[in-house]
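STRUCTURE:
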């Protein structure tokens, strides 16, 4: 969801610079900084950006640079008086000398000089809309470039988990045999106790089946394939990828709880590390 776009609309008497910044967010969250002349169009801009950018914390700003020589400005007496009172009060409170040239200080402060308000013409708004659309296109192109890099990272992480899953297999038979030997040795150490060997074998089979991880391995492999398939879809799939990552985590956790072998447990820890890195990256997927 990270993106940036910039465009300029030039009119005979002014230049409007449009900037759009986008960061990751669960929902579409728009913050605007618009000149008062364009405030009436804020809802239309919000709806348009929501359709195009879908999700993300989006910052839209417009900066107007007046280039006409005959533009008239007026001093806002109320704002200037407010600044004067506040600066005088702070001067007394903090024991700081007051400015020698009051007007040179006050006239540079924000909103003291007001340009005469102009009505927004259709021609001007059309040019601004074109600039906004151009900035949106740049933002989407930036997002797409970031997404391609992100897809490579996520694919690498999935393949790493798949390789670790394949590395589990050599430990499985060794793990089962160790469990059988430990149970038999414990039973043989109990001198003078007779037991039903058939019942013992049944209990052994039941216990070994509880340690079997083939089902977890199969589901995990399926989730890994499904993740890669979803990653290739053109529509926004960030939330869906997050859900699949949760399912991958469940299978890895179950695999770890059944491992009962140090080698397998180390592999499970590595899987979890790869998955956590994936989850961090998925937060930025649209």
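SEQUENCE:
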């Amino acid at each position: 969801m990270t993106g940036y776009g910039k465009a300029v609309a030039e009119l005979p008497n002014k230049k409007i610079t449009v900037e759009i910044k986008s960061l990751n967010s669960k929902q579409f969250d728009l913050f605007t900084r618009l000149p008062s002349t364009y405030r009436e169009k804020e809802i239309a801009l919000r709806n348009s950006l929501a359709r195009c950018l879908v999700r993300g914390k989006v910052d839209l700003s417009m900066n107007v640079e007046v280039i006409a020589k005959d533009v008239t400005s007026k001093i806002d007496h109320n704002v200037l008086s407010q600044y004067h009172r506040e600066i005088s009060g702070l001067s007394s409170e903090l024991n700081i000398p007051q400015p020698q040239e009051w007007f040179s200080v006050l006239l540079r402060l924000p909103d003291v000089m007001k340009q005469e308000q102009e009505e927004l013409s259709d021609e001007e708004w059309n040019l601004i809309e074109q600039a906004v659309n151009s900035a949106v296109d740049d933002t989407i192109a930036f997002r797409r470039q970031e997404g391609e890099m992100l897809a490579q990272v996520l694919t690498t992480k999935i393949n790493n988990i798949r390789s670790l899953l394949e590395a589990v297999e050599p430990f499985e038979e060794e793990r089962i045999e160790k469990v059988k030997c430990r149970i038999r040795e414990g039973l043989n150490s109990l001198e003078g106790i007779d037991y039903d060997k058939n019942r013992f074998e049944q209990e052994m089979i039941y216990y070994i089946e509880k340690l079997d991880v083939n089902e977890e391995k199969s589901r995990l492999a399926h989730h890994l394939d499904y993740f890669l398939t979803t990653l290739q879809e053109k529509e926004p799939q960030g939330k869906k990828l997050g859900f699949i990552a949760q399912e991958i985590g469940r299978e890895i956790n179950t695999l770890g709880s059944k491992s009962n072998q140090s080698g397998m447990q180390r592999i499970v820890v590595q899987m979890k590390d790869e998955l956590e890195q994936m989850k961090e990256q998925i937060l930025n997927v649209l």
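REMARK: The chain has a mean pLDDT of 83.
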